[in-house]
Specification:
This is PadR family transcriptional regulator. By secondary structure, the protein is α+β, with helices and mostly antiparallel strands. Helix content is about 65%, strand content about 15%. A three-stranded antiparallel β-sheet has the order 1-3-2. Helix 3 crosses helix 4.
């Protein structure tokens, strides 16, 4: 169905805004971020996708990662950078503009 495909595209294939939004609130490690996406947005991103997106965000300096030992186990905690905050703002602006263009007069047309 078209709506299921749209949901998949705006979730799994567009994971970075979700991750940046959560990292804006507080630093977190990868598994914790997957859990928070589920808690806050109602879906669980695939494990491999999560790590791939985090790697790309870090490589492009939208986030930074710091290894910390927690309960004897090393975990990489991610934190959003100023560049990441700017990207999130650009994403918000894009989605607001898209929403207005697609739906602003929909009630009048239907």
């Amino acid at each position: 169905m078209p709506i299921e495909r749209l949901k998949k595209k705006t979730r799994e294939e567009l994971l970075w805004p979700y991750l940046l939004k959560l990292l804006l609130i507080e630093p977190a490690y990868a598994y914790e971020l997957r859990k928070k996406v589920n808690e806050n947005f109602g879906w669980k991103p695939p494990l491999t996708t999560s790590y791939t997106v985090l790697y790309r965000l870090e490589r492009k300096e939208y986030i930074t990662g710091t290894w910390e030992k927690e309960k004897g186990r090393p975990r990489k905690y991610y934190q959003i950078t100023d560049k990441g905050e700017d990207l999130l703002k650009e994403g918000r602006s894009y989605f607001k503009d898209l929403q207005e263009k697609l739906f602003e007069d929909l009630d009048q047309l239907i």
